[in-house]
Specification:
Elements lengths: L11 H7 L14 H15 L3 H5 L7 H19 L4 H19 L6 H13 L4 H15 L6 H11 L1 H10 L5 H21 L1 H6 L7 H7 L3 H5 L5 H21 L8 H23 L13 H16 L4
């Protein structure tokens, strides 16, 4: 009799690693700093098509910091989103946080954390924003509905706002006032993505539209499931788009307070987020039948408009 062996392991960590690129695993031996920087740069450029746009104006000494921060965010996100087994995803996020703690203790092994250690030391970055991102990715595994807009913004406080704060730390521009403006922009970008992806998120079992607002507008979950953009659903999206646009306006106060190179990036991201809102409006708030997108030509125009506005000193 032939005995069958299953390739499925009972170890959630191993199940998680098996769903991800081999380079994501924690190696037995730490790479050199030079090797770690190459790893982060390659990861950033291969995963983020606009990475060169977001960094080409930055002073050269800052670019490795942006690469290492982006690499950390990218892998952290993948641990939560690309591993479909929630138990495995949560286990990997614990492993990743252990490596974050090891990084601050000077014992990192993964190339992302080897490179990140230099950025943390050079830019005096505290652990909190890195750890907050992991809180958001854990929440994605366990929380799939949000009662109020305050609850949704509470999620953004962990999922989006830390990224802006990390950028400010990396550029030596960390102040409480800038944090407030950055938080507004980052939360607005997250919200714009939510409203753009209502259908996609529902397929993943998630609804980020506040349930309180859904009830107030008379929107039933069944309408989302059936991809029916009812008048009530359109009214709900109109409300969310207006709220999000007001947040972008608050966040724009950050732009004139930072150097030209970063101001271009910040304005480009704000314009991109606002363009998503415009695309939603152009479809009369029906994001269920077809996902609103920004075309490549529109992206190129946004870049030219942003450069022109910054060069001419307009806000």
């Amino acid at each position: 009799m032939t005995e069958r062996f299953s390739t499925q392991t009972d170890d959630p960590v191993e199940r998680g690693w098996a769903a991800l690129p081999p380079s994501y695993r924690i190696p037995a031996q730490a790479p050199s700093l030079a090797e770690a920087k190459v790893f982060c740069d390659r990861l950033a450029r291969s995963h983020y098509e606009n990475f060169h746009v977001a960094t080409w104006l930055l002073p050269k000494p800052l670019r490795p910091h942006f690469s290492s921060i982006y690499a950390y965010c990218r892998i952290s996100d993948d641990l939560g989103d690309e591993v479909k087994d929630s138990q495995a995803a949560l286990a990997l996020l614990d492993v990743w946080e252990n490596e974050l703690n090891a990084c601050y203790a000077g014992r990192a092994k993964h190339p992302v954390f080897v490179a990140l250690a230099e950025s943390i030391h050079a830019c005096q970055i505290p652990k909190e924003p890195f750890a907050d991102l992991l809180t958001a990715f854990r929440r994605d595994q366990t929380v799939h509905r949000y009662e109020t807009v305050e609850d949704v913004l509470g999620y953004c406080r962990y999922s989006a706002n830390p990224v802006g704060r990390l950028v400010l730390y990396a550029c030596g521009l960390a102040t409480e006032e800038r944090f407030r403006w950055s938080d507004a922009t980052c939360s607005a970008l997250q919200l714009a993505n939510f409203w753009q992806d209502v259908g996609r998120d529902y397929d993943l079992g998630r609804i980020y539209l506040p349930l309180e607002d859904m009830r107030r507008q008379g929107v039933e979950e069944r309408a989302i499931a059936e991809r029916r953009a009812t008048p009530e659903f359109r009214a709900l999206l109109r409300q969310q788009v207006g709220f999000t646009r007001a947040m972008f306006k608050v966040g724009r106060q950050l732009i004139p307070t930072v150097p030209f190179s970063l101001a271009v990036d910040l304005e480009l991201f704000s314009r991109g987020g606002e363009a998503v809102l415009q695309a939603i409006e152009k479809q009369d708030y029906d994001v269920l039948a077809r996902r609103p997108v920004i075309t490549k030509s529109r992206k190129a125009m946004l870049l030219l408009e942003t450069l022109g506005a910054r060069i001419l000193g307009r806000k």
